[in-house]
Design goal:
By secondary structure, this protein is an all-alpha fold. The protein folds into 3 domains: about 190 residues, Up-down Bundle (Growth Hormone, Chain: A), CATH 1.20.1250.20; about 55 residues; about 220 residues, MFS general substrate transporter like domains (Growth Hormone, Chain: A). Helices cover about 75% and strands about 0% of the residues. Strands 1-2 form a two-stranded antiparallel sheet. A hairpin with a 2-residue loop joins β1 and β2. The termini are close together. It comes from Microbacterium halimionae. It is a multi-pass membrane protein. GO terms for molecular function: transmembrane transporter activity.
């Protein structure tokens, strides 16, 4: 069986156009991350545009978050079983459908449904990383993974000014038509360039496990994302949060007792995988702490302690972080090949700590925020490149899709937690000016401290990740 798997892998590595495969998957990754910044320019205006309350319009963002968190690990397992390219195409088609629904919808229900369907595309990145392991020569895998990982930041950083420009110059529904057109192009490119998956896992899909994971995650993420609005100790928040945790505990018990689980928790519990996933939560938190706090302080009027930039101006200050991630991606691959991905993750965490330390000490000028954002780009570029490499060195090839999906889920937990906690910190210190809550300098400083603490946690986890052989080197007798 192993010989057959090696024959298939050797056939795939001889395929032409490997650079084109990487490029297409990178574009798909940027399309994925673009979905999270798509509605940022109109978020504050949604109550007026949709004739709905602010609590209701918050679901335009929350729906995407929930859908992405639920679909990502499930799509990873489906990709392992039924073909990674096939599932990528399904996710892209779902995103296009959601974009069209939102583009045609004048009311809030259609927008929320469309945004939820758009969230499916987030599963493309971990699947794309797994495809790279399947089809590329081993000497090219690390650099390609670094490039795909960089798109998680690049798409958002480049998409924000694009969304701001479209919003200011045209009807806001055009944003969804742009997303639909982009998704259609990526669908065609994947169909044309990316080869059909031949490395698959036999067995039946765990529908019960998928349902349990979905219910548990929705409960926990609802409590995290909506706790600031509902009240952290309200009955609704506690019921959804505790209920979600209980469902996940039962789900874990069930997964450990069936022959073909949705996620092999024994693999996920291995020290390298577990520590990498915990570091992913911390990295996700540290990234999103900057995404929430830096734009707000840049757009805040100068009379209130900010810099008074327009949305496009603030976007251009934030954008270089994504460009840095893209520029660093080839260097990330070389560092990983030379010294291993563990050091890459450590360097990423140190850069994030430096970014927040710099901001705490120096944040009186726009250029200082720009420098901090560049350091954020270095940290996330290195860290996000290292994490899938660490995962794939620690799991069998049959588990790459599901394991990368789980890692992406942990990053999402970090970002969603940061969105809720940083918003709560800024709101708790805010003063009301002309009926509008304005965050204080103390609130921003607290946000920067929390981002730095998260980076420190990532550094500690990275330091304790064992430097070992790859899974295949440790288990040469096991089938792939």
């Amino acid at each position: 069986m192993r010989a057959h798997g090696n024959d298939e892998r050797n056939r795939l590595t001889r395929m032409p156009r490997q650079g084109a495969i990487v490029a297409v998957l990178a574009i798909a990754g940027m399309c994925s991350s673009f979905m999270f910044t798509l509605v940022v320019p109109i978020q504050s205006k949604l109550p007026e545009l949709l004739h709905a309350s602010r609590d209701d319009t918050a679901w335009v963002v929350t729906a995407t978050l929930l859908a992405a968190a639920v679909i990502t690990p499930i799509s990873g397992r489906l990709g392992d079983m039924y073909g990674k390219r096939r599932i990528v195409l399904v996710l892209m088609a779902t995103m296009v459908l959601g974009s069209v629904i939102a583009a045609f919808s004048p009311g809030i229900v259609g927008i929320i449904v469309g945004r939820a369907l758009q969230g499916a595309v987030v599963g493309v990145v971990p699947l794309g990383i797994s495809i790279l392991r399947d089809v590329l020569h081993k000497d090219r895998v690390d650099s390609a993974i670094a490039l795909i990982s960089a798109t998680l930041g690049v798409g958002g950083a480049l998409g924000l000014p694009l969304s701001a420009f479209v919003t200011e110059k045209a009807d806001w529904h055009l944003l969804f038509w742009v997303a639909a057109a982009l998704g259609s192009v990526v669908f065609a490119l994947v169909l044309w360039i990316v080869p059909v998956s031949v490395l698959r896992t036999a067995g039946r899909f765990d529908y019960t496990g998928a349902a349990g994971l979905a219910i548990g995650l929705i409960g926990v993420l609802l409590a995290i994302s909506r706790g600031n609005t509902w009240g952290w100790f309200s009955v609704t928040t506690l019921a959804t949060g505790i209920g979600g945790i209980l469902v996940l505990l039962v789900w874990g018990w069930y997964e450990l007792r069936i022959a073909e689980p949705l996620l092999d928790l024994r693999v996920a519990a291995r020290r390298p995988v577990l520590l990498t996933n915990i570091a992913s939560v911390a990295m996700g938190f540290s990234l999103f702490a900057s995404n929430v706090s830096y734009p707000q302080i840049l757009e805040l009027p100068e009379s209130l302690g900010g810099f008074g930039l327009s949305l496009i101006g603030a976007s251009l200050i934030v954008m270089p972080s994504g460009i840095v991630m893209m520029v660093l991606s080839p260097f990330s691959g070389r560092i990983a090949r030379t010294v291993g991905p563990k050091l890459l993750l450590i360097l990423g965490a140190i850069a994030l700590m430096a970014a927040y330390g710099f901001t705490i000490l120096f944040s009186a000028e726009v250029w200082q925020i720009l420098v901090a954002n560049i350091l954020i780009g270095v940290g996330i570029g290195f860290g996000y490149a290292a994490m899938p490499m660490l995962i794939m060195r620690s799991v069998p090839q049959s588990e790459t899709g599901a394991s990368n999906g789980l890692n992406a889920l942990f990053r999402s937990l970090g970002t969603s937690t940061a969105a809720a906690i940083i918003a709560a910190v800024l709101a708790s210190s805010a003063a009301v000016v002309d009926g509008v809550q304005i965050p204080s300098s103390g609130g921003f400083q607290s946000s920067f401290v929390l981002g730095g603490i998260a980076a420190l946690l990532a550094l500690i986890c990275a330091a304790f990740i064992p430097t070992r052989q790859t899974f295949e080197e440790k288990h040469p007798s096991l089938p792939e």
